[in-house]
Amino acid sequence: MLDIKNLCVSYGAIDAVRNISLHVDDGEIVSLIGANGAGKTTTLHTITGLIPAKSGSVMFNGHDLLNERNHKIVTYGMAHIPEGRHVFTRMTVQENLEMGAFSLKDDAKMSDDLDMVFGLFPRLKERRRQLAGTLSGGEQQMVAMGRALMSHPNTILMDEPSMGLSPKLVKEIFAIIRKLHDEGITVLLVEQNAKMALSIADRAYVLETGVITMEGDAKELLHDEKVRKAYLGA
Amino acid sequence: MSNQVIMFISQIFNGLKIGSVYSLVALGYTMVYGIIRLINFAHGDFIMVGAYVLMLTIPAIIACGMPAWLSVIPAILVCVAVGVIVEKAAYKPVREKGNNMTALITAIAMSLLLENGSQAIFGADYQTIPTIIQIPSIAIGDLKIDGATIVTVLLGIIIMIALQLFVSRTKQGKAMRAVSEDKEASILMGINVNSTITLTFAIGSGLAAVASLMYCISYPQVSPMMGAMLGLKAFVAAVLGGIGSIPGAMAGGLVIGVVESLTKAYIGTITGGVITSAFADAIVFGILIIVLLVKPSGLMGEPESEKV
C-alpha cells in the first residue's frame, strides 16, 4: 500500500502542497480531485521522486520513496502515467512499450507483454511501427497506459488520463481503468473530470490550494453538496 | 577516363576521407547536445588528447611487436576517461545549479584548459607521429586511390553503422534516445538518467579518439591546438546535419569534407584566381551561416525553439 504522511512540497518560496496525508490500500481506486493548481500533479511527482519533498514521508510497500533514487521506484511495482502522456514522440509505438519494460531484468517475456498490451489496445497493434508523435491524443494516452503496464506494476498513478479526449475516448479509457482494477491493480487517479473520477473510485480526496479539505467514500462525495457545487457544476 | 574526371573523383575521395573524421567528431557534438542540450566546446580538443596518446604509445606498441594502429585502444581509454571526468567534474555540477549559458561557458573553459594544459606539458610546437599504417594504393584504370583514404572511409562507415545499430536496436541505445527526448518520462521507465549521460559522453569521446587515429593516418602530426579547427568544422557539420540528429551528423560531416576538398581544388580555377583555395575554411563557415539563416534545424534535425 501507499501511505503518505504530512507531505510538504514547495517551489522556492511557494508552498504547493501543505502537510497532506493520504493512503491508498491494495486493490483500491482512489481519486484525488481538485481545481487547476491545487497541487495534484505536484503530489504525484513527489511520490515518484520527480520533484523533492520538503518534509513528510511517502511509504510504498515498505520502501521509503522520498529517500530512494527516483529511477528505482518503478522496480517496486509503481508506474506513473504523467499528465500530458509524455510518450517518446520520436520513437515508435513498440519502442515506447519496450521502454516501459526497461526496468525488467528478463526480456524474454517481452513479446507476451506486448501481446497483453495489444490485446487491451488493439489500435496500438496496427500502429506499432508508427512514430508515437504522429498519433492522436487518445492513441498517445493508450501508449502511455500500455507503456506503464509493461513494467508489471501493482500500483499505477494516473495524472489526468481524460485530458483533451473526446467523451467517447474518455469512456474507453475509464473502462480500461476499471478492467485493470478488476485484475487487482491499485490506482491513484488524479482528475479534473471530478464526476468520472468519483464514479469510478472507491475513495477520494479533495485537494484545495495544497491542502486536503475533504476525504471519504467516493460515492458519498459524489452526492456531497459542497463537492457538487465546486467540482460537478451542479 | 579523362584527367579531369580522375582528378574530380580523387578530390571526392579526399573529401570523404576528411569528411569521415568530421562525421565521427560531429557525432560527439550531436549526441551530447541531444542529451543535455550543451554544445561541448571541449569536444574538438578530445581529438588532440587522442593524438597525443597515439604519439606516446605508438613506439611502445611497435616495440612490443604489435601493429601501430592498436594504439587507438589506449587513445580510446584516455579520451573516454577525459570525457567522463569533464562531464562529472565540470558539466554536471553546473547543470544542476546553473543554466544553459553557464554550462556553455564552462565548456569553453574546459576547451581552454585542455589546450593550454597540453601546451604546458608538450610545448606549443608540432610533433610528428610515427607512421600508423602503410597500405598500397588501389588503382582503377588511371584512377589511383590512396590506401589510407580507403581505410579511413571504410572505418568511418563501419563505426557509423555500428552506432546507428546501437541506438536503434539495443536497450541502452534506446534509453539514450528516450533520455534525449524526455528525462522525466525516462526516469519513470526506470532509466538512470545520469549514467545514460555518462555513457553518451563516453561514446562521444571514444569516437573522437578513433577520429584522431583516422586523422593522424593521413596527417601524422600533433599540436595542442589541432583540435580547435577540426572541432569547429565538425561542429559546423553537426549543425548542417541538424544538431541532435545522429544520421544528420554523419551526412553533415561527409558533406563538409567534400565541399572543403572541392573548394580547395576548384575555387581558384572557377573564380579565375580571385578567390584562392586559402578561402576553403571561409566557405565551410559560410555554410554554417547559410544553414543558420535558411534552415536553423539543419538538414535532418527537428525544428526546435531553443537554440544556443
UniProtKB/TrEMBL annotation, chain A:
Listed InterPro entries: AAA+_ATPase, ABC_branched_ATPase_LivF/BraG, ABC_transporter-like_ATP-bd, ABC_transporter-like_CS, BCAA_Transport_ATP-bd_LivF, P-loop_NTPase
Q: Which GO terms describe its molecular function?
A: ATP binding; ATP hydrolysis activity; branched-chain amino acid transmembrane transporter activity
Q: Which SUPFAM superfamilies match?
A: P-loop containing nucleoside triphosphate hydrolases
EC number, as in UniProt = 3.6.3.25
User: What is one Pfam family matched by this protein?
Assistant: ABC_tran
The UniProt similarity line reads: Belongs to the ABC transporter superfamily.
Task: Give the source species.
Answer: Bifidobacterium merycicum
Record's keyword annotation contains ATP-binding: yes
The answer on whether this UniProt entry bears the keyword Metal-binding reads: no
Q: What is this protein called?
A: Branched-chain amino acids ABC transporter ATP-binding protein
Q: What's in the keyword line of the UniProt record?
A: Amino-acid transport, ATP-binding, Hydrolase, Nucleotide-binding, Transport
